[in-house]
Every structure is written in structure tokens, then in C-alpha cells.
Amino acid sequence: MAKTREVIIPKGMEILYEKYHYCPGIKVGNTLYISGQVGRDENLQVVEGVEAQFVQTFENVKKVLTAAGATFDDVVEMITYHVTGVNLGSLEVQPSNGSEQQFTIPHLSLFIKVKDRYFTNNFPTWTGVGITALSTPGLIVEIKCTAILGN
After folding, report:
1. Residue 61 near residue 124 (C-beta atoms within 8 A)
2. Nearest CA among 58, 34, 56, 59 for reference residue 45
3. Whole-number percent of the chain with pLDDT over 90
4. Which of 1-15, 43-57, 97-111 has the lowest mean pLDDT?
5. N or C: which end of the chain has fewer CB within 10 A?
């Protein structure tokens, strides 16, 4: 049986397809591929503040999941790209007080706390990668996911 390809473009993300020529999501059979989502609002403005940017990024992932009829429980793989030391400007990592694990990726402890607000039951596989920059100055994280629908 032939697999059908369905483009997923949530309301407010049309500009990504129209101007930048990529799909926020593509569903093939019961698999949903979500392109990397970042902490920008519908006007493509970078959200200010570390936690606020993490939340916006997960909210953008959620928009694609919802448009495809899925939830975070359907996500089986998550890859995150985190801007490290270079280009962080005022978002530089503050020294730890020693009470929590040290990570080479800035703000990873906070990222995990935000992630855990969205992934509460079925946890996906996760690969976190440190990088030097993302597409737009000020962005500090990008999240790419794959979900299996209908489980």
C-alpha cells in the first residue's frame, strides 16, 4: 500500500511554508516528522528570556502535534540543538552553586524542567547537541521531533 504524504501547517505557521519553503510537519502514514521548532512567536520575533524561549519552543512543537491530531505522548524521538557559549550575549550561563549537576550545554537543567512540563507520561528518546549558532541571532534552542500516531 502506498504511503501518503500530508503537509502539516498549523495556523500561524503559514509563513514558514510560504516564505521559507519548509513544512512545520509532514505526516507519512502514521509517522509525523516535525521540523526543528524554535522560540519565535507567530511574527517570527525571537522570544526574550531563557525560560520563555524554551516554553515558546515547546508550544510551537505542540502546535504541530495538535494540528496533526497528536500529543506529546505520541513523540518517540526528540533531538534538541542548544547554542553553547558563543553568541549567547546576555544569556551566558551563570556559575552553579554546586547543588546541581554541571552540563556543558547552557541552561540544560532549566530546559529539562520545562521539557518535563510537556512530557509527563511517555518519554521519548532524546539526543541533545551543543552547537555554536541557530538561524536567527538570539535563538538558543531548536527542537526536532518524530511522533507515531494512533498508539
Report:
1. no
2. 56
3. 81
4. 97-111
5. N
CA distance 93 to 117: 22
Q: Please provide the DSSP assignment of 58-82 as one string.
A: HHHHHHHHHHTT--GGGEEEEEEEE
- Other beta carbons less than 10 A from residue 46's beta carbon: 16
Residue 46 contacts residue 139 (beta carbons within 8 Å): yes
| Model-wide pTM > 0.85 | yes
Q: Check whether 140 has a pLDDT greater than 90.
A: yes
Question: Which of helix, strand or coil describes residue 150?
Answer: coil
Joined together, the cell numbers standing for residue 133 give 549558532
Which residue matches cell numbers 519553503?
21
Could you tell me if 147 and 75 are in contact, meaning their C-beta atoms sit under 8 angstroms apart? yes
Euclidean distance between CA atoms 151 and 144, whole angstroms: 20
Asked whether 128 and 108 are in contact (CB, 8 A), the reply is: yes
Instruction: Judge whether residue 113 has pLDDT over 60.
Output: yes
What's the rounded mean pLDDT across residues 10-28? 96
